[in-house]
Structure formats: structure tokens, C-alpha cells
Design a protein that fits this description.
Number of strands: 0
Main location: membrane
InterPro entries: AA-permease/SLC12A_dom (IPR004841), APC_YAT (IPR050524)
Strand content: under 5%
Shape: globular
Structural class: mainly alpha
Domain Amino acid permease/ SLC12A: 4-306
Low-confidence stretches: 274-279, 352-356
Order of helices and strands: HHHHHHHHHHHHH
Distance between the termini: 30 Å
Organism: Colletotrichum shisoi
GO cellular component, one term: membrane
Number of helices: 13
Length: 356
């Protein structure tokens, strides 16, 4: 996550070149960094408000782009040229999204630590994820991304700048989310005794500021853009973050398999719970390192963690599910009592808010 911050800032700096290349990219990088750090130091409330603004802009833009892209694809642009499926060639339309598409979708679970009634809110949000991904991402692929190039070639003069600006804010929003997720993960590790206790310290806004500072420790790497071509540096960061995302999902999958095996070994039933429904290798030092450095870093950190804490792999029969299931039952009992007290319009509004 920490290196993802540098990747997204690098992307934002690259997008700025659409308008002008005369300003040193270090200036824009500094502006973006100051904004991201400020938002993450001032508490979850300010972070949520900025994310709502950025997300609203992005949703409105994507809806407009899907409509506009379909018009251009079907020959409704100034040139009257019908594009159709012309560019759906080898290796296919969705190939470039197979690996990066899984990145950061675990953000829903991380947000649960900052949410009231997470057992109710998080499943409701997760159920809506499929439809949001389908309408805003799959349909946007069908109308041929990147949009800026598409509208520029179609002769539409104003839209490319608007699109580029919104995409730039999206990169900044993604940066802010990466800092938020990584810092809360470090905070959780500290609370579990797997990281230094100093990471639990919070400022007056309730932000684990030392965890945020540690998360931002790698962000100065983004200033490599000043000495190198921004697109080249962005490519390096993309390689590193993509492999890191794959490793993260490997760990999540192994953890889930162990969790499932533990439930089965201890006789817990899953009935009654909600169920949620390649590129070319470049033979260069930078290409090899940016693609594979995370594999070695992960292996080294895992072995160091095991050696330092002298921890062992917990047997499936020893996993503690009793405490968590007791907490779930108590929370459901409190919710039932609270819901019985609500009647009429208040109860109706509450259901609309939590299910919309």
C-alpha cells in the first residue's frame, strides 16, 4: 500500500503533462503530497467527506463517458466513423485488467474498523459492489478506454480536459485511500502485538499518526519523476504495486482456507450467515527488480516476523472462534432490541438508509 501512494502520485503528475510540460513535476508532486497527508492526519471524518466529493465526481463522469463513448463507437462523433469492436484484438479486451483489477477491493473490510454497525453496513455495501463494478468499469471498457485519447481523436475539444482533470482527482483519491488502508492495517497489527506499540498512538482527531507517518515513509520515491521521465517511473511503480497486490491476495486466500478449515475442524456451521456472492518481460535490471522485488521482500519479512516473534502456525483445532461468535450473538441481540423500539416513519427511514 505504501508504494501504491508513490505510484498514484506519479500517475497524477503524468496526467498534468496533458496541459503543460513547462512546470517541473516536483511542484505538482509536492502539492499532491501535502493534500494527501493533511487529509489523513485530520481524522476519518475529513477523509470520508473528501472521498464522497471525489467519488461523486468520478461516478458522474463515468456515466457521461459511457454514454458519450457508445455514441462515438457507433459512429455518432464529428467524423461519423463507426469503431465497434475493431480494437478487440489479441490478447483481448479485458487482459490488462486481470491482475490489477483485484487491487484494493479489500478496502471494504478495512473501512469496517471505522464504521458503526460494521456487521450490517459492510455486507450491504459488498452486495452492491458487483453492480457498481459492472456498470462503471465493465461498461466503460466496452466503450473503449482511454477516454481522453478517444474523445481527442473524435474531434471533441472540451471533454478531454474535463476527463483528464477528473481522472487526476481520482488518482489523488486513490492515494488517500492507500494511506488510510495501510495506516489502519499497521494500527491493527500493533493492537494484536505484531507491530510496535507506538503505532497505536492517536492524535486529537483519532488518527494513528505514527502509523500514517510510517505509511508515508516511501512516498519520497515519487521524486524519481524529477530526474527521470514520468511515464517510465510510473511504469516501475505499476510493476511493484501489481506484484504486491498479487502477493496480498495469495495471503488472503491462504488465510481464508485456514479459517474455513478451522471452522470445519471445530464443528462450526456456516448456515445462517450471509454469503457474498500478460505482458512481455524486459531483460533489464529495472524491469526485473520492479517485477520481482516484492516476492523477495515478502519472503524476507515473513521469515523475519516468524523469527523475531518466535510464532508458530496455529492448529485449526486451536483457533479461537468462540469469542467472535459470542460477540456476534450479543450484537444481534442488541440490534433486535433497538429495532423493536423504533416504529412508523423512523423505522422506515432507517431501513431505507441501511439498504439503499
Amino acid at each position: 500500500m505504501s508504494i501504491s501512494v508513490a505510484a498514484e502520485i506519479s500517475a497524477a503528475a503524468t496526467l498534468i503533462h496533458f496541459w503543460s510540460t513547462s512546470v517541473n513535476p516536483g511542484v505538482w508532486i509536492t502539492v499532491f503530497l501535502v493534500f494527501i497527508v493533511t487529509v489523513n492526519f485530520c481524522g476519518a471524518r475529513l477523509y470520508d467527506q473528501t472521498e464522497v466529493v471525489f467519488a461523486s465526481l468520478m461516478i458522474m463522469t463515468i456515466v457521461g463517458l459511457i454514454i458519450g463513448g457508445l455514441v462515438i463507437d457507433l459512429g455518432g462523433g464529428p467524423h461519423g466513423e463507426r469503431i465497434g469492436f475493431r480494437y478487440w484484438q489479441n490478447p483481448g479486451a479485458f487482459n490488462s485488467y486481470l491482475v490489477p483489477g483485484y487491487g484494493n477491493i479489500q478496502v471494504v473490510a478495512i473501512y469496517g474498523s471505522e464504521t458503526r454497525e460494521p456487521r450490517k453496513i459492510i455486507p450491504a455495501a459488498t452486495r452492491k459492489t458487483f453492480f457498481r463494478v459492472f456498470f462503471f468499469y465493465v461498461l466503460s471498457i466496452l466503450v473503449q478506454s482511454p477516454f481522453v485519447i478517444a474523445f481527442t481523436r473524435s474531434g471533441v475539444s472540451v471533454l478531454p480536459s474535463i476527463i483528464n482533470a477528473v481522472v487526476c482527482t481520482s488518482a489523488i483519491s486513490s492515494d488517500s485511500a492507500c494511506v488510510f488502508i495501510a495506516s489502519r492495517t499497521l494500527y491493527g497489527l500493533s493492537c494484536d502485538g505484531h507491530a510496535p506499540k507506538i503505532l497505536q498512538r492517536c492524535n486529537r482527531f483519532g488518527t494513528p499518526h505514527y502509523a500514517v507517518e510510517l505509511t508515508c515513509a516511501l512516498t519520497p520515491l515519487v521524486y524519481l519523476n524529477v530526474a527521470n521521465n514520468t511515464s517510465v517511473v510510473f511504469g516501475w511503480f505499476v510493476n511493484i504495486t501489481t506484484v504486491a497486490g498479487l502477493i496480498g491476495w495469495m495471503v488472503i486466500e491462504v488465510t481464508y482456507l485456514r479459517f474455513y478449515a478451522g471452522l470445519k475442524a471445530q464443528g462450526y456451521s456456516l448456515n445462517g450467515f450471509d454469503v457474498f456472492t500478460t505482458g512481455n518481460f524486459t531483460a533489464s535490471a529495472s524491469g526485473f527488480l520492479t517485477c520481482y522485488v516484492n516476492v523477495f521482500v515478502f519472503a524476507a519479512l515473513y521469515l523475519l516476523f516468524k523469527f523475531y516473534l518466535k510464532s508458530r502456525v496455529i492448529a485449526v483445532s486451536e483457533m479461537d472462534f468462540g469469542t467472535e461468535f459470542t460477540s456476534i450473538r450479543q450484537e444481534k441481540a442488541r440490534e433486535e432490541v433497538y429495532e423493536h423500539k423504533e416504529t412508523g416513519l423512523k423505522q422506515l427511514l432507517r431501513k431505507i438508509v441501511h439498504t439503499a
